[in-house]
Every structure is written in structure tokens, then in C-alpha cells.
């Protein structure tokens, strides 16, 4: 492949890697590329598949751009193209790393929290109450479904919860 | 809640046969805490000595239950208010004893009523820990701190009378989620102070 087209192809590849959900767009861009350069789509797809293995493997093994470049050269790519790819890799790797971390297993991930608070005016047991309650709705991702959990807290519980969460924040910050 | 009827309160005079003041006190507490459905067994247990027949026992227990609940409902904290509930010819000493017992217990009973109110599941306890994720199948080396929060939640007390179900829910929060949550909690705190200062 002449270098201009190689750059174009690399761009398409990295755009897909940084936005893995845009599968349709990726496939469209690939077939456009194939038509523009008079290559047939089938073999192009196979080549692309093998090329994609390199960045994925690189992520898993935390390879530096030089290592990626060396890998490509070992695979038979010209130095110029390998360097270009490595450059693209360097530029995109923060995004790719963040995506990989985001994909890491999370147990019962908290996705959303809604709340309301109010005053209990009365009940069937007590004519006048006047106590404050806080209600939280936690949206939790369990596997591929979401579950809503509703909890009620008293005011002292709320303040203690807030205090604990601030301690967690301090702890998390000291580790980043 | 309807006012307690005079005929009902007359049944309380069976208490005159009680062996001691403590027995009366005990019975008052049990009658308040019991639900209307639980009064039957209470009548059977408490009353071979106090009542001539099962019907009298039931009336006694039911009257005590209604009286104590009525006082707590209306928050009658003054002796005069409670004394005025009794009918004219009610036994003087018994009236004073019952009023005294009720006044002693009223704030504990009020707390009990509030604790057993209907509500959404309540938070009972919470624990947390911070882990550092070092690797995963998608990336071999990283150092990402994450928080695991365990909430112990008790189902509505009114639904499971004697054995409330406590479930533990473990939730994972990333740093971003925690920051967003803290923002939300901060807003709640600000609104609470605004309400408190009005």
C-alpha cells in the first residue's frame, strides 16, 4: 500500500479503536476505502483483523510506542509505515488505556443516585410527627441488567454516611 | 383514631385484681406494643388471674391497648389530659396508677411507634473499603483505586413483624462516581441547612 493510503487506513483503524461502539461507521469507512483504492473488501477485512490484533495485544502488555514499532517491523512492515503507526499509537494510547480500564470488571457498579427528602407529618400511630426522612434510589448495574434499590435514612445516618464518603474520597485520592 | 369509649375503660377495673403494680406496668407495656391481632394470645396469657372469663380478659387487654395507643397518638403529655379520659366513677387509685405508668412510658412508646412506622427499606449499617485494581484481562498493568461499599438494608419493619430481614448489598464505585455522589450529598446537606435555618 502506498503511504498516503496507509495513513488513511491507519486513521480509520484508530478511530474505530477509540470508539469501539461505532462498528457500523467503521465497516462503512472500510468499504469506502476499498472502493476508492480498488481493493476488494474481503481480503481488506482480513488484513484489518490481523492489524487490529497488534494494538489490542499492545494494550494488554502495556507496550511502549518503540515496542509497537519493533513488532510491526518484525511483521514485515516498512520502517516508515511502522513509525507512522507507532506515532498514532502514542497519540491514542491514553484514550485506549482509559477505554480498557473502563472495560474492567466492576461488581454491582453504581450508575446513578436519585434522592428526595421530606418531613413525615403524621402516621396512623402518631398524629403529629415532624421528623425528617431522606430517601435514596440507587441504580445498580448487575451483569447486564440494572436494579433499583430504595433506602431510607434518618438525618443522623445521612450525616454519618456523608462523613464516611468523604473519608473514602480522601483515601481514593491518596492512591491516584 | 376514635376516642376510647367509657364502657371500654370500665373493663380496666379488672386490673384491681392484679397482684402488684409491676404486673400492671408489664401488662400496659405489652398491650401497647402488641398489634391488634396479637391481643388474643396476650389476653389468654395474662388473664387467668385478672379476669373471670375469657371475654372479660379480651375486653381488658383491648381497652389497655386502645387507651395507650390513643394517648401516644394524640401526644397527651399532661396528667390532666390523661385523667380526663377516664369515666366519672372510675376507681381513683387505679386511675392515678395508670396515668403514672403511661406518663413514664410515653416517650419510649413514641419512639417505638416511630421506629415501626411504614417506610422504605432502612439503612441499618454501612462499611467500605478501597481496593487497587492492578490488572485485568483487558490490560495487564494498572493502578486504579476503586471503592467497595456495603450497605446493610432492613426491609420494612411493619411487613415482617418479628424477624426483620436484613440484606447486604455491595456496590462498587469508581472515583468519578464517588465524586458525583458527594456532589449530590453536598447539595442535600445544603438544602437541609437551608430548611433548618428557616
Automatic annotation (TrEMBL), chain A:
Pfam families: COMM_domain, COMM_HN. PROSITE patterns: COMM. Coiled coil: none annotated. GO terms for molecular function: NF-kappaB binding. Transmembrane segments: none annotated. GO terms for biological process: negative regulation of DNA-templated transcription; tumor necrosis factor-mediated signaling pathway. It comes from the Eukaryota. Residues 109-176 form the COMM domain. This is COMD7 protein. It comes from Cochlearius cochlearius (Boat-billed heron). The gene is Commd7.
TrEMBL record, chain B:
PROSITE patterns: COMM (PS51269). Residues 122-196 form the COMM domain. Pfam families: COMM_domain (PF07258), COMMD9_HN (PF20923). InterPro entries: COMM, COMMD9, COMMD9_N. It comes from the Eukaryota. This is COMD9 protein. It comes from Cochlearius cochlearius.
